[in-house]
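>> Question from a student workshop board

For tomorrow's exercise we were told to take the sequence and the ligand below, predict the bound structure, and bring the output to class. My setup keeps failing. Could a helper post the expected result so I can at least see what it should look like? The ligand is oxalic acid.
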Amino acid sequence: MRVIYFSADQDGAAWIPGLQAALPGAQISLWERGARAADYAVVWKPPQQLFDEQTQLKALFNTGAGVDALLKLRLPDGVPVIRLDDAGMSVQMAEFVCHAVVRHFREFADYESDMEMGKWSFRKPRSRLDFPVGVLGLGVLGERVAKAVAQFDFPVNGWTRTSKALPGVQCFVGDAQLDDFLAASRIVVCLLPLTPETENLLNAQRLARIRPGGYVINVARGAHIVDADLLTCLDSGHLAGAALDVFRVEPLPKGHPFWQHPKITLTPHTSARTLRSESIAQIVGKIAAIERGDAVAGTVDPNRGY
Ligand code: OXD
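>> Workshop helper replied:
Here is what the output should look like for this input. Compare the format with yours to find the bug.
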């Protein structure tokens, strides 16, 4: 069996020994132009040329949570695209989002700057009932986030394409209930897959539906938010702030207004990192299932886009 690995961001040299140790009988190599035909490809943001050359693949593994970059390419006909099922990402996402929610709700940024100035002052406790948290997207990551936030006794709303029952989470379904979901939420967390339907979802009209004094946390894709509309809502005071981990262009270009905005907290696409050993164990388990002819969890539906 031949397995190729390619990543636009990660250190490939570190993945090869791990894959080799887990698949001792296989030939594992970094993909390069003109490489011999492989059975499996393990990839993150690969170039089109990889698929133009590798037309015999039995399956394709995406090493990140989102498959949008992959689905923009022309893939070999019928090759299943398989994503990681969690592989240690959902706990990271839950801690990242809970941190952002609690940091905003408890006004820790203000305390930090007070303390830096040597100022000892308390803020009035706020009621968490006034800070309902809405999670856009209740997939593996969104579900974990919604449950984790609910543990802090915030009211939690969820928005999904098809109905989902989660204890402690009020679910809103489809386009018809999106405005109601936004109006019921003051902190909005975006965890949607990026598809033509969800691109630019958080535009001026939708951001205006969020409760006044709202807060936006984007840990999905930059293209879910219309940057200029977010800035307008922050500057008008309709939104109190935003925590952004993802951007239309990454790294966020120097000079982009997000860098200096006083109401925006930035992180460099780090909310849930791919964990190498967990991911390799999962990929190897899925390869074994495919070789046995068994169904494999996490197969992407290319028409749905996730
Ligand atoms: C992603 C990831 O898909 O970082 O954004 O895994």
